[in-house]
From TrEMBL:
Top-level taxon of the source organism: Bacteria
Lineage: Bacteria, Pseudomonadati, Spirochaetota, Spirochaetia, Spirochaetales
Native species: Entomospira nematocerorum
Name of the protein in its database record: Helix-turn-helix transcriptional regulator
Matches recorded under InterPro entries: Cro/C1-type_HTH, Lambda_DNA-bd_dom_sf, Phage_CI_N
MF term (GO), any: DNA binding
Residue span(s) of domain Bacteriophage CI repressor N-terminal: 20-65
Length: 125
Protein backbone atom coordinates (compact mmCIF):
# COMPACT_ATOMS: atom_id res chain seq x y z
CA UNK A 1 0.00 0.00 0.00
CA UNK A 2 1.42 3.39 -0.98
CA UNK A 3 0.57 7.05 -0.37
CA UNK A 4 -2.18 7.08 -2.97
CA UNK A 5 -3.74 3.85 -1.67
CA UNK A 6 -3.84 5.29 1.86
CA UNK A 7 -5.40 8.54 0.60
CA UNK A 8 -7.98 6.57 -1.38
CA UNK A 9 -8.77 4.38 1.64
CA UNK A 10 -9.21 7.40 3.90
CA UNK A 11 -11.37 9.15 1.31
CA UNK A 12 -13.53 6.05 0.91
CA UNK A 13 -14.08 5.90 4.69
CA UNK A 14 -15.27 9.52 4.55
CA UNK A 15 -17.37 9.00 1.38
CA UNK A 16 -15.34 11.62 -0.50
CA UNK A 17 -14.08 11.21 -4.05
CA UNK A 18 -10.55 12.03 -5.17
CA UNK A 19 -12.06 14.64 -7.48
CA UNK A 20 -14.00 16.14 -4.57
CA UNK A 21 -10.88 16.31 -2.42
CA UNK A 22 -8.87 17.94 -5.21
CA UNK A 23 -11.59 20.52 -5.82
CA UNK A 24 -11.91 21.29 -2.11
CA UNK A 25 -8.12 21.68 -1.70
CA UNK A 26 -7.57 23.47 -5.02
CA UNK A 27 -5.28 20.69 -6.24
CA UNK A 28 -5.10 19.89 -9.94
CA UNK A 29 -6.79 16.52 -10.45
CA UNK A 30 -4.71 16.03 -13.60
CA UNK A 31 -1.44 16.60 -11.72
CA UNK A 32 -2.61 14.35 -8.87
CA UNK A 33 -3.42 11.54 -11.29
CA UNK A 34 -0.19 12.05 -13.26
CA UNK A 35 1.88 11.84 -10.07
CA UNK A 36 -0.10 8.78 -9.01
CA UNK A 37 0.46 7.10 -12.37
CA UNK A 38 4.19 7.75 -12.11
CA UNK A 39 4.22 6.68 -8.44
CA UNK A 40 5.60 10.11 -7.47
CA UNK A 41 4.76 11.77 -4.18
CA UNK A 42 3.10 15.18 -4.46
CA UNK A 43 4.94 18.27 -3.23
CA UNK A 44 5.18 18.57 0.55
CA UNK A 45 2.70 21.46 0.70
CA UNK A 46 0.16 19.30 -1.16
CA UNK A 47 0.80 16.30 1.10
CA UNK A 48 0.35 18.59 4.12
CA UNK A 49 -2.99 19.90 2.85
CA UNK A 50 -4.21 16.39 2.04
CA UNK A 51 -3.17 15.06 5.46
CA UNK A 52 -4.90 17.94 7.23
CA UNK A 53 -8.04 17.52 5.12
CA UNK A 54 -8.19 13.79 5.85
CA UNK A 55 -7.28 14.13 9.53
CA UNK A 56 -4.32 11.80 8.99
CA UNK A 57 -0.66 12.32 9.83
CA UNK A 58 1.81 12.99 7.04
CA UNK A 59 3.86 10.08 8.39
CA UNK A 60 0.92 7.70 8.04
CA UNK A 61 0.09 8.78 4.50
CA UNK A 62 3.73 8.65 3.39
CA UNK A 63 4.87 5.48 5.17
CA UNK A 64 1.87 3.70 6.64
CA UNK A 65 3.25 4.00 10.18
CA UNK A 66 0.42 4.44 12.63
CA UNK A 67 2.28 5.55 15.74
CA UNK A 68 0.77 8.14 18.01
CA UNK A 69 2.28 11.60 17.76
CA UNK A 70 5.22 11.84 20.12
CA UNK A 71 3.67 14.88 21.78
CA UNK A 72 1.10 12.48 23.27
CA UNK A 73 3.75 10.84 25.45
CA UNK A 74 3.01 11.77 29.09
CA UNK A 75 5.30 14.54 30.33
CA UNK A 76 6.88 14.88 26.87
CA UNK A 77 7.63 18.54 27.60
CA UNK A 78 9.74 17.49 30.61
CA UNK A 79 12.09 15.35 28.53
CA UNK A 80 15.33 16.74 27.20
CA UNK A 81 16.22 16.58 23.51
CA UNK A 82 18.32 13.41 23.88
CA UNK A 83 15.45 11.60 25.60
CA UNK A 84 12.99 12.72 22.94
CA UNK A 85 15.38 11.56 20.24
CA UNK A 86 15.80 8.17 21.93
CA UNK A 87 12.03 7.70 22.18
CA UNK A 88 11.59 8.73 18.56
CA UNK A 89 14.26 6.24 17.49
CA UNK A 90 12.56 3.50 19.47
CA UNK A 91 9.09 4.20 18.13
CA UNK A 92 10.26 4.37 14.52
CA UNK A 93 12.71 1.47 14.76
CA UNK A 94 12.86 -0.78 11.71
CA UNK A 95 13.97 -4.08 13.22
CA UNK A 96 14.74 -5.47 9.78
CA UNK A 97 17.56 -2.98 9.24
CA UNK A 98 18.53 -1.78 12.73
CA UNK A 99 19.80 -3.60 15.76
CA UNK A 100 17.39 -3.37 18.67
CA UNK A 101 20.18 -3.95 21.18
CA UNK A 102 22.08 -0.87 19.96
CA UNK A 103 19.02 1.28 20.42
CA UNK A 104 18.41 -0.07 23.93
CA UNK A 105 21.99 0.79 24.84
CA UNK A 106 21.52 4.33 23.50
CA UNK A 107 18.33 4.74 25.53
CA UNK A 108 20.02 3.40 28.66
CA UNK A 109 22.95 5.82 28.23
CA UNK A 110 20.57 8.77 27.77
CA UNK A 111 18.59 7.72 30.85
CA UNK A 112 21.71 7.35 33.02
CA UNK A 113 23.05 10.69 31.78
CA UNK A 114 19.77 12.38 32.71
CA UNK A 115 19.74 10.74 36.14
CA UNK A 116 23.30 11.92 36.77
CA UNK A 117 22.41 15.43 35.59
CA UNK A 118 19.37 15.47 37.88
CA UNK A 119 21.44 14.28 40.82
CA UNK A 120 24.16 16.88 40.15
CA UNK A 121 21.58 19.67 39.84
CA UNK A 122 19.84 18.57 43.04
CA UNK A 123 23.11 18.47 44.99
CA UNK A 124 24.37 21.81 43.62
CA UNK A 125 21.00 23.51 43.16
Amino acid sequence: MDFYDRVKESLRAKSISIKGMCEKLDISLETYNTNRGRNMMPRLDVVTRIASFLGESIDYLATGHTIAPLTDVPNWQHLNEKQRHAIHQFVTLDTKTERFEDLCEDIDRAYRRQQNDNLANHVHG
